[in-house]
Write a structure and sequence with these properties.
This protein is of the alpha+beta class. It has ten helices and 13 strands. Helix 4 packs across helix 5 and helix 7 packs parallel to helix 8. The chain binds coenzyme A.
Length: 373
């Protein structure tokens, strides 16, 4: 059987940063404006005044200290509160494809490969900027890859599900090489005017190159096994789909057309799901979880990750055993665990094993057991 390996990883990070303090100042200015506009209804008790957000709450509840975004000017303007992303013409490279090309080139360079040697591009992300043609096919063309490309969406688990799909295709021999790329423009599906979640997301793009281990040119990670699971839940939901225009009131500013979550329920329900998923995967793979040298976990909440790390490893993980990047990047949906992997894997020694694990809307959980070669 062909042994698949991750031979390169790439990370595109936007240049603009929003700190918690900047974000909170903008949100509070927006809330003050809104409260002034609705002063009569608030006084009459028919609507509730919007409360202020706070940096202390954000750090304590999530571990997030800042986020990268494609555009901060719109997000920080209390009269706008969303990114200004210029709509591109059909002849221009799309916004997602542009980020993806940068991240993919980095992954290819690390692996010492040319784009023309790639047979498949999987663009795995929680939102895609159009219905078709697939963003993956645009990336395939922009890079000069062969074979085929397709988009997939498993929300925050898109990257690990994409890696499983690519690894399985390499194992079966239907392709030799695949790029799995995760352009996440979360700033465009976050409701920046909602105090409960305005701090959660950031923008980024990650990519990994997978190929048969026997063809790897440098240091790499064998993909020993993967496991994916889903279980339906409405606790993380975004109703913005193609039927939107057929609904009455589609022009209205509808809250459910952006990311919505019941954060507390997600917390309670997803944690046991992830822990039992990892235990089951490790059991199946004959891997003692306490012997894992690294966990690259989905980056949504520091408390969640600390809990999962402790349960899986059976000890309080050292910071390098379970690296967090969400203090810098916030939640970047499917890209989070891959950012952690791209930034914190070079120091592992041959034979060291680690687990990439993502989880989120669906619910969905995906885990990838890797070994440093
Ligand atoms: N600033 C100040 N206070 C805030 C606030 C803000 N930005 N947002 C909420 N609060 C208040 C709430 O109103 C609530 O006040 P109350 O106790 O008077 O009702 C209090 O802080 C606690 O709010 P709560 O929503 O229960 O906080 P939390 O500790 O659950 O943290 C999340 C919120 C979203 C960070 C957390 O639930 C989480 O990370 N959940 C999992 C999310 C996840 O993994 N999602 C997957 C997405 S891909």
């Amino acid at each position: 059987m062909i042994q698949p390996a991750i031979t390169g990883a790439g990370l595109f990070t936007p240049t603009q940063v929003i700190t918690n303090d900047e974000l909170v100042a903008a949100f509070n200015a927006y809330a003050d404006l809104w409260n002034a506009e609705h002063a009569d209804e608030i006084a009459a008790g028919t609507v509730e005044a919007k409360g202020h957000s706070s940096s202390e709450f954000i750090v304590q509840a999530s571990g997030i200290e800042q986020r990268y975004v494609l555009d901060k000017t719109g997000v920080l303007d209390p009269e706008v509160m969303h990114p200004w992303l210029r709509e591109r013409s059909d002849d221009e490279l799309g916004q997602m494809a542009e980020m993806a090309v940068t991240a993919c080139r980095m992954a290819l360079d690390q692996a010492g490969r040319q784009a023309s040697e790639v047979d498949a591009v999987i663009c795995a992300a929680s939102n895609h900027e159009r219905a078709y043609p697939a963003v993956a096919i645009e990336i395939q063309q922009a890079l000069g890859c062969g074979g085929f490309g397709f988009d997939m969406n498993v929300a925050c688990s898109s990257a690990t599900f994409g890696i499983q799909a690519a690894a399985d295709m390499i194992r079966s021999g239907s392709i030799r090489r695949a790029l799995v790329v995760n352009p996440e423009i979360c700033s465009a599906h976050l409701e920046w005017r909602d105090r409960d979640c305005h701090f959660i997301f950031g923008d980024v793009c990650t990519a990994v190159l997978l190929e048969p281990e026997e063809e790897a040119k440098g240091p790499h990670f064998r993909v020993l096994s993967t496991r994916c699971a889903t279980q339906f839940s409405n606790n993380i939901r975004n109703n913005n789909g193609f039927l939107r225009r057929t609904r009455k009131g589609h022009m209205e500013d509808r809250r459910d057309m952006q990311f919505m979550q019941n954060g507390r329920k997600v917390f309670k329900e997803v944690l046991p799901l992830v822990v039992s998923h990892i235990e089951g995967h490790m059991d199946e793979a004959g891997q003692d979880p306490t012997a894992l040298r690294r966990l690259w976990l989905h980056q949504a909440n520091k408390t969640m990750n600390d809990y999962i790390g402790r349960k899986v490893l059976g000890r309080v993980p050292d910071p390098e055993e379970q690296p967090n990047i969400l203090q810098d990047y916030a939640n970047t949906s499917s890209a989070g665990s891959i950012i952690a992997f791209a930034k914190h894997s070079d120091d592992l020694q041959p034979g060291d094993r680690g687990l990439i694990c993502s989880f989120g809307a669906g619910y969905s959980v995906g885990s990838v057991l890797v070994e440093r070669a």
